[in-house]
Request: fold
Amino acid sequence: MIVVLKPNITKKDESAVLREIRKLGYRPHVMRGIERVVIGAIGDERTHQSLETLVSWPQVERVMPVQKRYKLVSREGQSGNSVVPARDIPIGGKKFQVMAGPCSVEDEKQLMATAHAVKNAGATILRGGAFKPRTSPYEFQGLGKTGLKLLAKARRETGLAVITELLSEQHAEMVAEYTDIIQIGARNSQNFQLLIAAAKTGKPVLLKRGLSMKIEEWLLAGEYVLSNNNPNLIFCERGIRTFETYTRNTLDLSTIPVIKNESHCPIIIDPSQGAGRADLVAALCIGAAAMGADGLLIEVHPNPAEAWSDGAQQLTLEGFARLMEKLKPFIAAAGRE
Ligand code: PEP
Ligand code: MN
Reply:
């Protein structure tokens, strides 16, 4: 930690700060400038009590951390990329993985038609919400366990792995029984008890970025998964809320190089929640592949106009097949398969 003292304070006030720093287990290193004193407090900030409360002292101007607050998700903790196994599908390795399927599981016909179509087009993982986090309680909330069973059936029929959202700690075991990856949605990305429950199932966890979540908060939320003995974490950028209304959210593709710099965990991009518009999905997927994302999470529906949720952003089955063709040269140019 760096502790900056206010200008022209007395020696007595300075000594009091130094005493407190020592008391909290740090070794102070004093740097004396012309007007002010800066103290480097040496010690592990993650294992010692924080010095941040020193800002409330009248003689202290600022306290700044030097170390990162996350350690297990950090590149410093592990230099090579993590490859997360979703059943037998590696995420974060050479192969660029596409997860695709409807926003919500609606019925057997809709899910099976989508599952077969996305598989034929090259997707390896089927998405579909059985528990839906809806803004209004009057909107479709998902089929629940019936939806999970349909996903399991689609997995049996197609061989695709499955990803679905976990909304409540109470459902952690049940959802884990049916899915290969647990999705933690944007609205729950800082629901720490839910993150712990998801981690403890032992299934890989895909962590969406929250609606107004800073990257550091996202990394720290991910730290909850790794620090609960689950090494299989995937970050998923899905757009953040900004002043812009042309798109549903503002998809922050800069998170790809940022997460790659900061963390060894894979990052995938969800252009569907990101744009909220089917016509923008292809361009965002191309950008994500070219920028080094490890995969995509795309909403696809046999008849988006009649979808029970997120109709405007879902691709048709044909649209998805065209997109997969269009993506090929960009995936190859990024050095992926
Ligand atoms: C979804 O994937 O359908 C979803 C609800 O996503 P998010 O949590 O990113 O809004
Ligand atoms: Mn959706």
